[in-house]
């Protein structure tokens, strides 16, 4: 499926984000780097929800913070409406952040417990000099009503709200400046299941009403399936598969995607009993010294010698649609079962020793 420039809101092009590891007391020396994001390319279209899934530590949240401008990238560029945000001035970034907001994972830690809710939601108006006094209070109360909160609770503290209500406060704060893109960093993972459904339904209603675009990060595949138009699967800093949500859930092509889907909970007990679980061997390798070639090869049930030395490109494979991209030399075939397979390539070491530094 071809995508025109007007349809693309965000374009991530060859983005790397590495965090240096330093040792020493007086003279600190860089001895290694954490490869949090390592060459990611993806696009976010206007009005859609792009789901990003993967195990903890795969780089989902770091990528989200790069897209919102909270982390400077090590290499690559991020285009928002065609403008490179990685080269923006401080003033340019401030204007950019009016169009891009974030909903954080922890509804407790993301709100200052010493400040009243009205002040927290009104911060964007104060920072950007949009409204003050009675006008700001009126706007904040309208936002509270929009997300299902009682406007009369304007002067309450966060501790006086439940977990789901606190996340609604975070949603209201993100909506204050009428952004074009909202990055949802696991916004329901800290909530009870019944409250999760309420918050997800709220986000869907707001998207339809306000024409929002979402990047939705989660590790719960059932949640991502429910809310996402397209899905990108990340492993150890890289996107290993990307496709329309229905295509990926019906026929995952990367062995890692197939393993994730096999571990997802199924509501139908008969279907759950028939499902075959793909059990991955070993732990996720260290991002300090990721494996050569395909990063998934030490745990992959289909790995061969080529996977150790040659990194696969993220391209369409075989008869897949043009927008179904897979980074795998030997993708999963239709009706192929990986449940009884084991990793074919052993990993030598996943925890590299850091060199000693003279102090």
From TrEMBL:
InterPro entries registered for this protein in UniProt: AAA+_ATPase, ABC_transp_ATP-bind, ABC_transporter-like_ATP-bd, ABC_transporter-like_CS, Oligopep_ABC_C, P-loop_NTPase
Domain of life where this protein originates: Bacteria
Statement: the UniProt record of this protein carries the keyword Nucleotide-binding: yes
Any one GO biological process: peptide transport
NCBIfam families: oligo_HPY (TIGR01727), PRK11308.1 (NF008453)
Lineage per the UniProt record: Bacteria, Bacillati, Actinomycetota, Actinomycetes, Streptosporangiales
Gene3D superfamilies: P-loop containing nucleotide triphosphate hydrolases (3.40.50.300)
CDD domains: ABC_NikE_OppD_transporters (cd03257)
Annotated ranges, domain ABC transporter: 21-261
Single GO molecular function: ATP hydrolysis activity
Protein name: Dipeptide ABC transporter ATP-binding protein
One Pfam family in the UniProt entry: oligo_HPY
Location of region: Disordered: 336-359
Entry keywords, A to Z: ATP-binding, Nucleotide-binding, Transport
Family to which this protein belongs: Belongs to the ABC transporter superfamily.
């Amino acid at each position: 499926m071809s995508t025109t420039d007007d349809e693309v809101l965000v374009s991530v092009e060859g983005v790397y984000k590495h965090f240096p590891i330093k040792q020493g007391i007086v003279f600190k020396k860089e001895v290694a780097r954490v490869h949090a994001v390592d060459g990611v390319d993806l696009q976010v279209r206007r009005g859609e929800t792009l789901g990003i899934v993967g195990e903890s530590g795969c780089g989902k949240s770091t990528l989200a913070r790069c897209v919102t401008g909270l982390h400077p990238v090590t290499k690559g560029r991020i285009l928002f409406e065609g403008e490179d945000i990685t080269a923006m001035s401080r003033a340019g970034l401030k204007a950019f952040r009016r169009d891009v907001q974030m909903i954080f994972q922890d509804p407790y830690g993301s709100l200052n417990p010493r400040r009243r809710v009205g002040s927290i939601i009104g911060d964007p108006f104060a920072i950007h000099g949009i409204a003050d006094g009675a006008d700001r209070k009126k706007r904040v109360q309208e936002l509270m009503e929009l997300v299902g909160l009682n406007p009369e609770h304007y002067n309450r503290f966060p501790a006086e709200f439940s977990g789901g209500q606190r996340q609604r406060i975070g949603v209201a704060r993100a909506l204050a400046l009428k952004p074009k893109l909202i990055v949802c960093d696991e916004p329901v993972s800290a909530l009870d299941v019944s409250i999760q459904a309420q918050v997800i339904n709220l986000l869907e209603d707001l998207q339809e009403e306000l024409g929002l675009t979402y990047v939705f990060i989660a590790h719960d595949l059932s949640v991502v399936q429910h809310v996402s138009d397209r899905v990108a699967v990340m492993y150890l800093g890289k996107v290993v598969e990307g496709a329309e949500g229905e295509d990926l859930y019906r026929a995952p092509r990367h062995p890692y995607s197939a393993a994730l889907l096999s571990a997802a909970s199924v509501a139908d007990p008969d279907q759950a009993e028939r499902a075959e679980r793909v059990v991955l061997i070993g732990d996720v390798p260290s991002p300090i010294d990721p494996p050569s070639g395909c990063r998934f090869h030490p745990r992959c049930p289909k790995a061969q010698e080529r996977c150790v030395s040659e990194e696969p490109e993220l391209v369409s494979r075989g008869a897949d649609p043009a927008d179904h991209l897979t980074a795998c030399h030997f993708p999963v075939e239709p009706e192929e079962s990986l449940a009884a397979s084991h990793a074919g390539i052993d990993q030598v070491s996943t925890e590299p020793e850091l060199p000693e530094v003279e102090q």
